[in-house]
User: What shape does this take?
Amino acid sequence: MAEYRKKGGNTDVDVSYQWLAIMFESNDHRLKQIGDAYKSGALLSGELKSIAIEKINAFLKDHQIKREEARDKLPEFLIKD
Assistant: This one.
């Protein structure tokens, strides 16, 4: 862990960071803060994963709510013979 703190992480290959960058962190300033902290070693891999998990869980919760709201509208989009 001491070596990781010294060298930092690589945002170019870290999947959790890539998910944040591509899909889950809409605030560019916050994404830069996370990336800089990760590259410097101030933010550990597990901490980065926790941030990603929070964002993903929030997305999924919202998606599940919207899916249930859309369930009643489904027949409108089905092809009828």
In short: The domain at 2-77 is CATH 1.10.240.10 (Tyrosyl-Transfer RNA Synthetase). The chain has a mean pLDDT of 91. Residues 45-71 form the longest helix (27 residues). The CA atoms of residues 33 and 60 lie 24 Å apart.
